[in-house]
Design brief:
Elements: H1 36-47, E1 56-59, H2 81-90, E2 94-97, H3 117-141, E3 145-149, E4 154-155, H4 163-176, E5 186-191, E6 202-203, H5 207-217, E7 220-224, H6 238-241, E8 248-252, E9 254-256, E10 258-262, H7 268-279, E11 286-290, H8 299-319, H9 322-330, H10 334-345, H11 349-359, H12 368-378
Parallel strand pairs: 1-2, 3-5, 5-7, 7-8, 8-11
Antiparallel strand pairs: 4-6, 9-10
Bound molecules: L-rhamnitol (RNT) and zinc ion.
L-rhamnitol (RNT) binds at residues 4, 9, 23, 97, 150, 191, 193, 224, 251, 291.
């Protein structure tokens, strides 16, 4: 579960920098977390309403530096010690992201692929610092931290040179990842993107770029559901990329007309994703991360809706009579396959889900919202 739904990707650097990087959070629903303690409390509330075990995914801008300005390339595990202590105390693992946006040195839209060596070096050092923080999390918590690199680099308009930024990005990444860290402590992931706000014509870290990078450097590949052409779906990519890479990170998100990062719901594509993970036996090799941010609704509810939707999709897939569907497919009985798909949609899935929630000691589908409303009245409503 991503930390950034709780505070609209603001973080705690209090530099006043715009989010940038082509990311946009819309809405002004009251109650956003303003401090690390508020973010932790809100997340724990959300956790209490979601069945199963989960992890928390931080970004470098959530460092706790006690009011001191610490440059991003000088961040140390000690700046995240409170996060690690908290994670241990509630028994969860942590994942991490360097933050290559919301910063004056990223304002011109380039970081690791910047033509200026000095700017590149700053961001390489930031990535290196973050990997060490990830490894410290992994060691402290006894579960590897997945450290995911996403950069915004790209051009708004027609480039004159598509090659050089990509040459520079490979070299920067190789430097960033040079230090060997135990995979039991830290795993590295790279995230591609088709376009962003302000990088509509060209993104250096495209899908082809990172697919090749992940295969050749043996890193985790991150596929974000909002980072492709609108009619392209990540569910159809999994069985292809898993042939060539060892581990996959999914950024589960919901784009509406563009990479809008709406709260994940039990959409057709979410269900299809769940089925692909279960049918292919990929669960042990896949990390499922949430990546959405909506500031127009209650943020704790947003976490709960998104996380529960992913779990519902997995449960639906686990309940599917896959053998029967496959058998029909092999016998070329596509009529029976389509009819059974349709029949499955009206089967009593909701009662199985509610029973699972009960067994896990969390509220059933019709009950969790009451808890969020109560929390809003007593806690979120006091934040003015
Ligand atoms: C941006 C990427 C990236 C971010 C987070 C905040 O397009 O999806 O994963 O959303 O790191
Ligand atoms: Zn993402």
């Amino acid at each position: 579960m991503h930390c950034w739904q709780g505070d609209d990707i603001r973080g705690f650097e209090s530099s006043g920098d715009e989010i940038g990087g082509g990311l946009a959070v819309t809405g002004n629903y009251p109650g956003q977390a303003r401090t690390p303690d508020e973010l932790r409390t809100d997340f724990e509330k959300a956790l209490s309403l979601i069945p199963g075990r989960h992890r928390f995914n931080l970004h470098a801008i959530y460092a706790e530096t006690e009011g001191r300005k610490v440059e991003r390339n000088e961040l140390l595990p000690e700046h995240f010690a409170t996060w690690a202590d908290w994670a241990r105390s509630i028994g969860i693992g942590l994942d991490f992201n360097p933050t290559f946006f919301s910063h004056s040195r990223a304002e011109d839209g380039f970081t690791l692929a910047h033509p200026d060596r000095g700017v590149r070096n700053f961001w390489i050092e930031h990535g290196q610092a973050c990997r060490r923080i990830g490894a410290a999390f992994g060691e402290a918590l006894g579960t590897p931290c997945l450290t995911n690199v996403w950069i915004p680099d790209g051009y708004k308009d027609i480039p004159a040179d598509r090659r050089s930024p990509r040459d520079r990005l490979v070299a920067s990444l190789d430097e960033l990842f040079r230090e060997r860290l135990a995979p039991s402590a830290n795993l590295d992931a790279v995230e591609c993107k088709l376009f962003g706000l302000g990088s509509e014509s060209y993104v250096v870290g495209s899908h082809e770029f990172y697919l090749g990078y992940a295969i050749s450097r043996d890193t985790v590949l991150c596929l974000d559901a909002g980072h492709f052409h609108p009619t392209e779906v990540v569910s159809d990519k999994i069985s292809s990329v898993m042939l060539w890479i060892d581990r996959l990170l999914l950024h589960v998100s919901r784009g509406i007309r563009w990479d809008s990062d709406h709260v994940v719901v039990l959409s057709d594509e979410m269900r299809e994703l769940g089925k692909e993970l279960v049918r292919g036996g990929y669960l042990p090799r896949v990390h499922i991360g949430l990546d959405f941010f909506d500031a127009s609704i209650n943020r704790v509810a947003a976490w709960v809706i998104g996380a529960r939707a992913v779990l519902k999709a997995l449960l639906l897939a686990l309940l599917e009579p896959t053998g029967k569907l496959r058998q029909m497919e092999l016998q070329q009985d596509y009529t029976g396959r389509l009819a059974l798909h349709e029949q499955l949609l009206t089967m009593p899935f909701g009662t199985v889900w509610d029973r699972y929630c009960e067994m896990q000691g969390v509220p059933t589908e019709s009950c969790w919202l009451q808890e969020v409303r109560r929390y809003e009245a007593t806690e979120l409503g006091r934040r003015k």
